[in-house]
Amino acid sequence: MVNIIWVMLTVIGIVFAMFNGTMEQVNEAIFKGGKEAVTISIGFISVLVFWLGLMKVAENAGLLEKLGNLFKPIVTRLFPEVPPEHPAMGYMLSNMMANLFGLGNAATPLGIKAMEQLKVLNGNSDKASRSMITFLAINTSSLTLIPTTVIAIMMTYGSSSPTSIVGPTLIATFLSTTGAIVIDRYFYYRRKRKG
Q1: Which of 62, 114, 107 is nearest to 87 (CA)?
Q2: Of the candidates 65, 101, 96, which has an alpha carbon nearest to the alpha carbon of residue 79?
Q3: Segment 83-114, tens digit of pLDDT
C-alpha cells in the first residue's frame, strides 16, 4: 500500500508540473535531491559503522547482556504475558538497546522479529495483543541516549557542535517513552474495566 501511495504522489506531482509549466524545477529538484541523498547516506554510513562496531564490541564484551539483564526486571513488568525466557523477550530487549543507542536502522529488524514472536504468543491472531500494543508504543517513542542518525546529519552539513542534540534528545525521548507507557496503561485498564 505504501508503494502505491508513493507512486501516486510521484505521478500526481509530475502531471501537475507538466500542466503548471514547472517541469524544469521538478527535474532540478530530482537531481539535487538525489545528490543530497548520496551525501547524507555517506555521512550515515560512517557514523552507523562506528556505532554498530561499538555495539559489536559491547556485545562481545558482555555489556549488552548486562544492560539487558539490568532492564529485564522493568521489561518483564511491562510485558507480564511474555515468559522471561521466550525469544520475544530477547528480541524486545535487543530492540530497546539498539534504540537506546540511537541505532534505529539496527533496531528495526529486531522489532520486526519481536512482533513476529509476540504474534506467535498471541496464537497467530490478527488482533494485536496487549504486549504487541505496549511494545509498539515503547518502540515508537524509543528512549535514546545517543541520537546517532541526527548526529550524522548534523556532521554531514558541517555543524560546529553535532553532539549538542544529545541532552535535548535524552529529555524528549524520556518524556515520550514515559508518556507512551502511561497512555498505554491508561487505555489498557480502561478497556479492562469496561470488559
Answers
A1: 114
A2: 96
A3: 888 888 888 888 888 888 777 777 888 889 99
Backbone angles phi, psi at 101, to 5 degrees: -95, 15
Q: Which three cell numbers stand for residue 81?
A: 504475558
Residues in the chain: 195
Whole-prediction pTM: 0.69
Give the span between the Cα atoms of 107 and 140, in whole angstroms: 11
Residues in the chain predicted with pLDDT less than 70, given as ranges, are 47, 51, 55, 64
Kindly give, in sequence order, each residue whose CB lies less than 8 Å from that of residue 49, ignoring residues fewer than 6 positions away.
none
**Of 73, 94, 100, the residue nearest 173 (C-alpha):** 100
Q: How many whole angstroms from its chain centre is CA 107? A: 6
23-60 vs 104-121: helix crossing angle, rounded to 10: 70
Q: Look at the block and give the residue holding cell 541526527.
A: 150
